[in-house]
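User: quick one, fold this
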Amino acid sequence: MLSERIKQFDPLAFQRLLDIGKCVLGKSNIRDVLKIAMDKAIEVTGAERGMIILFDAEGSVLFETARNLQHKDIENPRFETSRTIINMVKNSAEAVCLTNALEDPRLKKSASTAHLKILSVICLPLKFEGETFGVVYLDNRTVRGAFEAETGRFAEAFADFISLAAHCALERKRLQNRISALEAELRERHDFKAIIGHDPQMVRILKIITQITDSPATVLIKGESGTGKELIARALHYNSFRKDQPFVTLNCGAFQENLIESELFGHVKGAFTGAVSERIGWLERAKEGSIFLDEIAEMSPAMQVKLLRVLQSGEFSPVGSTEIRRTGTRIIAATHRNLAALVKENKFREDLFYRLNVIDIDLPALRERKGDLPLLIKHLLEKFAAARGKPRLRLAAETERLLWAYDYPGNIRELENILERAIALSEGEVIEPAQLPPALHYAAVEHPGASVPSPLNEAKHRAAEKAERDFISACLQAAHGHISNAAKLAGVDVSNFHKLVKKHGIDAGEFKKRE
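Assistant:
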């Protein structure tokens, strides 16, 4: 036990162990954990060379890091003695601390002993809840470098610290890989590459899209201007059986009241002044495809009645005609306004609202999913820089902080404009703060405490933590709070799932199905 080992050390050694523990436990990336752990292990023991190996349940190597050793050295027959010791610790889960490994009867038969005069070894298991998932190997090949007994005891206590840090980082990596694999599968299967983001809200929206693509039900997409409502509409269309049929977009706020009816339903010759010939409307041109009615709240009351008829029966009549025509077009509507509030104010028909709101999708504002900002910036920077012939462009650190601090009232569309402007103004390979619009500088000055600028890598870390918590919660919700079933959905064993639930302070009981 770690507590028993610590009692054997003087206060200075104990403080050193704590300082090392803080260093290692402060890292979340598994490779960073192993790198720091390896450096500290060499430092505290005075070893000549060393290696940390992590393996899976089948014994296959997952990660390894080494000092003064290369992979070709490990495969060399001369390393046979050390390989034997590593396998011994791996299988027995017991530490090995030898002043001279060549005197150990278990190793005298090794063919690699002939060239060695001495081999001082410390080999320690990395364990979590009794299960060995890795080893730390350290050695010296000279008499002067032989390990003392105190060094071995200190190294064992050190191994307990890095076991915890390595296991946590490994589980986080596994979970992130699981989440990324699920997202990649979802995107590959339904080709949502245009929709950028790992935020749980966006992942849920992608899942909804996969469930409703082939449904004839009307969809209402809600969200602020610039959040990507048309992208969602296109994803719905191009991932459905309608993908080979037309996709038509009509902005209801872009036409005068007397023109939008003609645009949507068409008109016959002589229907009004200027109608010199028959015109087929967009509803008919869409055939069996989809029509995207953007800014539906701007539609006049008279047009609302006519659209309601289409939704109820699929019937319409061109302007100036009594002929009834039918359409099989799927209607997808969008608005940045609160339709429910407009209904209460008698500014939007209640019956039409309920017909439109069969399936609703709420798009979050960019400020509500800032964890996606690094991905969006990277994607847009690469896209616009390549178009401008500046593929090596990167952001200065202060530019990153200003971009992170801003709230983007214009959402993704505003971010696109900001980056496109900055790329156009850039003269070298680095986008400087001066190339950002004044609004970003004003925001940083006027609200210095409201949103402290943070480096984008910190944003990524927070986003990963949030994604992990939301993923665990989603699994619990799907399993109605049943831990074992939720663990199966997450693709991790029950004990590790328990730890993740505890880590995030989640109450599984809240997800139990109410009778």
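User: anything notable?
Assistant: The chain has four domains: 2-175, 200-362, 366-454, 458-511.
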